[in-house]
Amino acid sequence: MGALVFTLRIFAWPYIIRVKHKHNDAGEHTGPPAACARALPMVLDPACTNATSAEGWLIIGAWVVTAVILAFALVPIIERAKKCLDFVATAYGIHFVVASIYAHKLPNTVAFYCTQIFCIVLSAVLGEWLCLSRELQEIPIAAPPSELLPLTSEPAGEAPAYGGRRSPFGGAAAKR
C-alpha cells in the first residue's frame, strides 16, 4: 500500500492539485469527492476510484502500477509460484476490509471492483510467472564436475579398512 501512496505522490499529486473540480449546471460537484485530493483517501476511499474523471483515472493507473510493483516484490518475498495467488488475494482482501471500515460502508462503485479484480489477476499472474522463471533457473555448482569425482580415494572394488564410515574427528570410525 505504501507503493501506491508513493506512486500517487510522485506522478499524480501535482496534476490533481491543478485540476479544477467539475460542477454540473446546478452547481453540484460531479467529480470525485474533494477529499480525494489527499493521499490517504486516494488509497482507502472507494469513491475516489472512478472512471468519470481525470483524478479517478490517475488513481486507477496508480493501482495498476502498484500491482506490477507487487508482482516484482513477490519474487524475493514469496519465492514460490504456488503461494503468489494466496499472498495477493490476502493483501487485496485486507485492503478491501480496511477500505470498507474507512468509508463506513461497502464500496459501491463498479470501477473500484473492476480495478481491484484486474489488479489481483495482474499481480498474481505476473508474480507467478516471475517466481516460476526464478524456480526454473539452474542451480550453480561451485566446483566443476571433474573435481567432484571420484568421491573416495580408495581403489574401486575394495572396501575401506574402517568399515566405510568416516569419523567426524578425522580418524576412522570404530566398527560396531
Automatic annotation (TrEMBL):
Region Disordered: list its residue ranges.
Answer: 149-176
A Pfam family of the record is: SYS1
- Localisation: Golgi apparatus membrane
InterPro entries according to UniProt: Integral_membrane_SYS1-rel
Which residue spans traverse the membrane? 56-78, 85-104, 110-132
Keywords for this entry?
Golgi apparatus, Membrane, Protein transport, Transmembrane, Transmembrane helix, Transport
Cellular component (GO) terms are: cytosol; Golgi membrane; trans-Golgi network
Report how it sits in the membrane.
Multi-pass membrane protein
Q: Might you name a Gene Ontology BP term for this protein?
A: Golgi to plasma membrane protein transport
Q: Which family does it belong to?
A: Belongs to the SYS1 family.
This protein is called Integral membrane protein
Tell me the lineage of the source organism. Eukaryota, Viridiplantae, Chlorophyta, Pseudoscourfieldiophyceae, Pseudoscourfieldiales
